[in-house]
Amino acid sequence: MDLGIKGKRALVSASSKGLGFGCAQALAEAGVDLVICARTEEPLHIAADALRGFGVDVTAVAADVTMEDGRAQVLEAAGNVDILVTNAGGPPPGKWQDWDRADFMAAIDANMLTPIELMKAMLPNMIENKWGRVVNITSQYVKGPSAILGLSNTARAGLTGYVAGTSRDVAKHGVTINNMLPGIHATDRANALDGAISQAQGISMDEARAARSASIPAGRYGTPEEFGATCAFLCSQHAGFIVGQNILLDGGFIGATI
Ligand code: NAP
């Protein structure tokens, strides 16, 4: 399917690896020029070179998108874009008894206020152009509970509320905002969570992974490639009527009828 976005320009934040890279790769395949970012130089430049292999223009910014100065660098390099995919690393797992104000503020900064700041910067030009696509990477735990990911749940619930209202406000300008809610995907983040479970329960990494895979109706972890393909579709010309949705990619994990 021709996604109809060849020649458009996108900012995909936190995108040298994992789900952000999956989204960047699918957009590159569709002919979209890219601005990508991550904190660590080497994997960022490896990712940028791989994306250039699709024949698109790629600008790579080594910066922490959750910090004000890092975000300013990313926004300056990006200028105006047609497509914004927001992503950042997720907060660490833990226990509700241990989290204090500083932990919550860090999570809210990274996973709620950072995507909001990026949208606030990019939406005016999209509105003027009468075309824009925003996809925020959140989490399946926005829809279903997880005690150990309470910091993530709290911050992402706030973002979800913001998107619900803002998406309805900008839709009349041809600008769509939607959230993608990943279930467990085979990335470094999933490895870190497997590691935390293996430690907490005194089991091996393989046992932790097998137990988590068995908890998913699809019986496996998702891949960054299939996640990226859905992201590219949401950013395509064909998705202009999809507004303010929270799209689960969880292999059926969240047990809800609708
Ligand atoms: P990942 O494999 O760890 O990749 C994270 C990417 O983001 C890396 O390129 C990393 O590079 C970059 N990054 C992280 N923090 C950054 C920051 N502050 N500024 C700039 N770049 C940053 O993670 P993932 O699995 O793709 O997860 C992406 C998001 O989806 C996270 O918020 C995660 O919580 C959420 N999620 C993931 C899963 C899953 O199973 N994978 C499930 C639910 C939700 P640097 O480290 O070099 O900066």
Architecture overview:
With 258 residues, the protein is an alpha/beta fold. It folds into 2 domains: 9-183 and 223-246, Rossmann fold; 186-221, no CATH class. Helix content is 47%, strand content 14%. The chain has 8 helices and 7 strands. Strands 3-2-1-4-5-6-7 form a 7-stranded parallel β-sheet, sandwiched between helices. Helix 5 (150-170) links the parallel strand 5 and strand 6 (175-182). The mean pLDDT is 97. NADP nicotinamide-adenine-dinucleotide phosphate (NAP) binds next to helix 1, strand 2 and helix 6.
Layout of helices and strands, plus pairs?
Blueprint: E1 9-12, H1 18-29, E2 33-38, H2 41-52, E3 58-62, H3 68-78, E4 83-86, H4 101-129, E5 132-137, H5 150-170, E6 175-182, H6 188-201, H7 205-214, H8 224-234, E7 246-249
Parallel strand pairs: 1-2, 1-4, 2-3, 4-5, 5-6, 6-7
Helix pairs in contact: 1-2, 1-8, 4-5, 6-7
This protein binds NADP nicotinamide-adenine-dinucleotide phosphate (NAP).
NADP nicotinamide-adenine-dinucleotide phosphate (NAP) binds at residues 14-20, 37-40, 43, 64-66, 87-90, 137, 139-140, 152, 182, 184-185, 187-190.
